[in-house]
Amino acid sequence: MGMWEISMSASASDTAVVKQLAAEFMDYLASKDYDSALDMLVTLNPNDPYRSQPMGLNDEQKAEIRSQFLRFPIRQYMIENVTFTRAYDNEIRCKTRLENGKYMTFTLKPLCYIGYWYLSLAGR
Q1: Residue 104 contacts by C-beta under 8 Å, 6 or more apart in sequence?
Q2: d(CA 92, CA 90)
Q3: In this model, does residue 4 exceed pLDDT 50?
Q4: What's the chain's Rg over C-alpha atoms?
Q5: Are 59 and 44 in contact (CB under 8 A)?
Q6: How far apart are CA 71 and CA 65, in angstroms?
Q7: What is the edge-to-edge ordering of all strands in the sheet holding 89-98?
Q8: Element (H, E) at 78
Q9: Which residues of 84-96 are buried (b: 16+ CB within 10 A; e: fewer)?
Q10: CA 58 to chain centre
Q11: Which of 36, 37, 86, 106 pairs with 28 at a CA distance of 20 to 30 A?
Q12: Residue 65 has what pLDDT?
């Protein structure tokens, strides 16, 4: 059984770190500092997520995600829920208010690798 396959229990410290990462990321989005937000995101090898080391996004991934941020600019956010399951399978749900006044839920996927927390996006 690899490190990623072990279920986890999160401490109060883990929760605080993950919420801080999410708040920093969402603050960047709300201030339209997309480069800083994108630099915070990582991805895993989809062929072996259990053993892969988190990697920063490549230029193509950054361009695709940036276009999504530009289509749905965020004005405000609220972290609603943090759920820990496994080191690579966790979720932070943020309720966002878009510049057009509509609301949307935004989901981040924090992951822990060798004791350090990283952020990825749901579905990536």
Answers
A1: 72, 95, 96, 98
A2: 7
A3: no
A4: 14
A5: no
A6: 10
A7: 74-86, 89-98, 103-113, 116-121
A8: strand 74-86
A9: beebbebebbbeb
A10: 16
A11: 86
A12: 95
